[in-house]
Specification:
about 100 residues, about 0% strand
Length: about 100
């Protein structure tokens, strides 16, 4: 079962995949179209590919978060992922 905490963690972890964070922090929204076009399985593979990098750096907390993200993406249906992705892509940087 996917919990709210798992969904929140998934949003936080996937945000830098979908958006250029330097631009975001500058108030501009720049979407990585390659990532935006990924299927659920492609995104899952991308996260799994990056997982060993974070798992080996001694940051257990982040490793646990990534485990939750992998579990969430594995449990989602393709339709659920598409809805999730579209909601995430609607985010806008804060304006001052």
């Amino acid at each position: 079962m996917i919990t709210k905490n798992m969904m929140d963690a998934t949003e936080i972890v996937l945000m830098p995949y979908f958006f250029d964070l330097n631009a975001w922090l500058g108030g501009r929204k720049v979407v990585d179209q390659k990532v935006a076009n990924m299927t659920r399985m492609e995104m899952l593979e991308e996260i799994k590919k990056d997982f060993p990098v974070f798992d080996d750096d001694g940051k257990e907390d982040y490793s646990e978060v990534l485990s939750d993200v992998v579990a969430t993406l594995s449990e989602m249906t393709d339709d659920d992922f598409q809805k999730f992705k579209l909601e995430l892509l609607e985010w806008e940087p804060a304006t001052e």
